[in-house]
Design a protein that fits this description.
Blueprint (H helix, E strand, L loop, with lengths): L6 H25 L12 E4 L9 H5 L4 E6 L6 E5 L3 E5 H6 L6 E6 L4 H12 L19 H10 L8 E3 L8 H10 L4 H6 L3 H9 L2 E3 L1 H5 L4 E7 L9 H5 L10
Antiparallel strand pairs: 1-2, 1-5, 2-3, 3-4, 5-8, 6-7
Helix pairs in contact: 4-5
C-alpha cells in the first residue's frame, strides 16, 4: 500500500531541515575568520603597538606608532614591517598586536596594480635590515614609517613628510628620557665624544617621518578602520583628522 505523506507533515519536516541548514550556515559564517578588506599590494596598515624598539616619538605625537606595507597573496596577506628587523608577518598576526585590536588600512589613490607590486618588491628588498632605535635618516637601519616611505619613493612616489624631531607635536620629555638611557650606544655621538646633552641636541635636529604623516598624506584614502576604545582623548579616527581633497598619485 502506497503511503502518501500529508502536505502539512512534509512542510513541517522541510521547514525543520531548512532551519537546521540555515543555523549551520550562520554558525559557520560567524566562526569563519574573514579579512576586513580585499587586500591590494601596497596597502598601508597602521596600528598602535610597541613591536619595534625605537624612541617613543610616535607615542608622544599622539598618533599611530607602527605601520607596514601589505602584500596580497592567495594564501593569505602578509605585512612587511620593521620590527626588531625588517620581516614579513602574516596579516592576522600583525592585527593581533594592536592595542584594543585597533588598526586602519589606507590606500594611495590611483596606485596601479603594477605600482603596488613594485612597492611590495621595494619593501621586500629591505628584509633583514636591523631596527633603528635612534630614528636615524639612514637606509642601513630602518624604523617602520621610514621603511614605508622608502618603499614608495623607490618607485617614484613620495608619501608622508619629513620634519625635525624637535618639531614633531607632543611632549618630548619621555622621548628624551628614553634617549638618555641609551645615548651611550649612539655611534655618531661616541665618535664625536659628545656629552649626553650634546648628543640629544644633535638627535633632536635630525629629520624623521612619522606613521601619521604617511597616512595623512592627501593622496591616501582610508579604506577600513577598527577604532580603539577611548583612552586619554585619543582614537584612531580622531588621530586621522581632516584631510584635503585627495589628489591622484603620480
Amino acid at each position: 500500500m502506497l503511503c502518501v505523506m500529508k502536505p502539512s507533515i512534509a512542510i513541517t519536516l522541510g521547514s525543520g531541515v531548512f532551519a537546521i541548514l540555515l543555523a549551520a550556515y550562520l554558525f559557520a559564517y560567524a566562526t569563519t575568520v574573514r579579512d576586513p578588506v580585499e587586500w591590494q599590494n601596497g596597502d598601508v596598515i597602521v596600528q598602535d603597538s610597541r613591536v619595534e624598539k625605537i624612541l617613543p616619538l610616535f607615542e608622544a605625537e599622539g598618533g599611530f606608532t607602527h605601520v607596514g606595507i601589505v602584500e596580497a597573496r592567495p594564501g593569505g596577506a602578509v605585512v612587511i614591517e620593521a620590527a626588531e628587523k625588517v620581516v614579513e608577518t602574516p596579516v592576522r598576526e600583525f592585527l593581533s598586536r594592536g592595542e584594543d585590536g585597533a588598526f586602519a588600512v589606507y590606500r594611495l589613490n590611483g596606485l596601479s596594480a603594477e605600482q603596488g607590486e613594485k612597492v611590495v618588491a621595494a619593501a621586500r628588498r629591505q628584509i633583514g635590515k636591523p631596527n633603528d632605535f635612534f630614528l636615524h635618516k639612514s637606509w642601513d637601519q630602518l624604523y617602520s614609517s621610514e621603511l614605508v616611505r622608502l618603499a614608495f619613493s623607490d618607485v617614484g612616489l613620495d608619501v608622508g613628510r619629513t620634519q625635525r624631531m624637535s618639531r614633531v607635536s607632543g611632549d618630548l620629555a619621555g622621548v628624551r628620557s628614553e634617549f638618555l638611557r641609551a645615548w651611550s650606544t649612539h655611534e655618531e655621538c661616541h665618535k664625536r665624544n659628545l656629552t649626553s646633552d650634546q648628543c640629544w641636541t644633535m638627535v633632536s635636529k635630525q629629520e624623521v617621518v612619522t606613521p601619521s604623516s604617511i597616512v595623512n598624506d592627501a593622496r591616501m584614502t582610508k579604506v577600513f578602520e577598527l577604532a580603539k576604545a577611548e583612552k586619554k582623548g585619543f582614537t584612531l579616527s580622531r588621530a586621522n583628522g581632516d584631510k584635503n581633497e585627495a589628489a591622484p598619485a603620480p
